[in-house]
Write a structure and sequence with these properties.
heterodimer; A: alpha+beta; four-stranded antiparallel β-sheet; about 35% helix; B: mainly alpha
């Protein structure tokens, strides 16, 4: 191996571990022109990544809030990719910084989106106008300022799981706690999120046994500090049809002010007005 | 199957995103928490890293590495950029705290990827000073100057140990060729 190649490897290794100075970076660029097969080499970076993974403790989980933010970021990312179909697979602009290549996605300025929106509205207006003029008897021509045609955009129907993520991402006062079995406190059945401000919340279950809707139903009870403990608030009656992950919206019958615990009981179909502790199948305390 | 996630994202399959977050969230979060000092900053970094992962998903080459290692590589790039741009210190009190030999997992067989397992084995076979410097630089995020000061050895020697150690591990992982090693260790 010649001296030049040896220097190239040294610089690639140095770049990966410590980064390079401007001068070294220039040297590396020059060497890469002599050895173009090394232009896109990531073997040193993969090696460092493997070392970085050794003995990594991955038991700490991200917060639910961060998880929700990621889902929102993913939506944004893919919506942008849909608008520019080649975004995902295209080669992003590469900008060299000291010791590292940073890939930048060109940001689309707001006015560009506005331009598209105006163009789309104009097309819709034109289409409506054409339809009206060709399908109806021609009215008398009157001088009139054309009205803006407003086409209501149908709101996408979100699943309960998506609504839950949205609540987590946008509500400021969300409390979250996990379901446990009353007989086995270590057995986690899922979690519950609740926002007092919005009076909105969702239960998420994994492994809660499906019920026969003709014979029984699950019912949520919300223990509120401001309520008599003997009369918890009913949070809705629901069925479970799958042992997989199920998200159920909470349907509180009255305003929840200070929730301190949530209980699930198994009742007759349609639910009951007063339950009994023996019927509790899952509990979640705040 | 986990290893197909990036390909699916690369081809625009939105349903793979949730799987991607579930599969690599813990990994990326752990890497971010290890290198960044506060959790808010780590949260920002995790979001940036995931976007980088989605953008680069189409570039994943399964013949080179596992998805886990590819994701860890992208995470490391972003975390180092953040540390260097903001001149941040690694997320530990002092370098003296990590000068001892790195502790192993309770169960050494538990590694996050095949490459991580092989890298752990390769690190064991390095010279102690190479292993120590690679650990301080790559795992803990210390600069060559900080390592030089802490170990009281010249900067050039720090770089040489890191370079040689990295090239050896690269070879063990099958990412380099023997010629590189022989030349670099002479």
């Amino acid at each position: 191996m010649d001296v030049q190649k040896e220097r190239l490897l040294e610089l690639l290794a140095d770049q990966t571990v410590f980064g390079l100075s401007e001068e070294e970076l220039m040297g590396l660029k020059q060497l890469k022109t002599q050895f173009p097969e090394w232009e896109n080499d990531v073997s040193f970076e993969l090696t460092a990544a493997s070392i970085n993974l050794t003995n990594l403790d991955i038991s700490k989980e991200m917060s639910a809030n961060l998880h929700a933010k990621l889902l929102v970021a993913a939506d944004d990312f893919f919506n942008q990719a849909d608008a520019t179909p080649t975004a995902i697979n295209s080669t992003p602009k590469i900008v060299e910084t000291v010791g590292r290549s940073v890939e930048l996605e060109p940001k689309r300025p707001f006015w560009q989106w506005l331009g598209w929106a105006v163009a789309a509205a104009a097309c819709i207006a034109l289409a409506v106008n054409l339809w009206q003029t060709r399908s109806r008897p021609q009215p008398e021509i009157v001088s009139k300022t054309p009205e803006t045609v407003q086409t209501p955009t149908p709101k996408p129907q979100l699943t309960a799981a998506q609504e839950r993520e949205q609540l987590l991402a946008t509500a400021r006062d969300v409390v979250q706690t996990t379901w446990t079995s009353p007989t086995d406190k270590t057995k986690v059945l899922g979690d519950i999120v609740w926002s007092n401000e919005r009076q909105q919340g969702y239960m998420r279950f994994r492994g809660l046994p499906p019920n026969d809707p003709n014979r029984e139903a699950y019912q949520l009870w919300i223990a509120d500090e401001t309520q008599n403990p003997k009369t918890p608030i009913s949070g809705g009656v629901f069925d479970i049809s799958s042992t997989g992950e199920v998200v159920v919206p909470i349907d509180a019958q009255i305003t929840v002010k200070k929730p301190k615990a949530f209980n699930i009981t198994k009742e007759k179909p349609g639910g009951v007005v007063v339950s009994h502790p023996s019927k509790v199948v899952a509990v979640a305390a705040i | 199957m986990a290893q197909a996630i990036l390909k699916r994202i690369g081809s625009g399959d939105k349903t793979a995103v949730q799987e991607c977050i579930n599969t690599y969230g813990g990994l990326i979060w752990s890497l971010a928490r290890r290198m960044l000092s506060n959790s808010e900053e780590a949260e920002d970094a995790v979001q940036e890293i995931f976007i980088d992962v989605w953008k680069n998903a189409g570039r994943f080459d399964e013949s080179q590495a596992s998805e886990t290692t590819f994701v860890a590589m992208i995470a490391r790039r972003r975390l180092i950029d953040r540390m260097r741009k903001q001149n941040r210190q690694p997320n530990i009190d002092s370098i003296e705290d990590v000068l001892v030999e790195p502790t192993e997992n309770r169960n050494q067989n538990i590694q996050t990827s095949i490459e991580a397992k092989e890298a752990a084995q390769a690190m064991k076979n390095l010279r102690p000073e190479q292993r120590q410097i690679l650990h301080l630089s790559i795992v803990q995020g210390f600069s060559h100057q900080e390592i030089s000061n802490a170990l009281d050895i010249p900067l050039g020697t720090v770089k040489t140990h890191a370079r040689r150690g990295l090239i050896k591990v690269r070879e063990v992982l099958g990412l380099g060729n023997l010629e590189d090693i022989q030349e670099a260790t002479v």
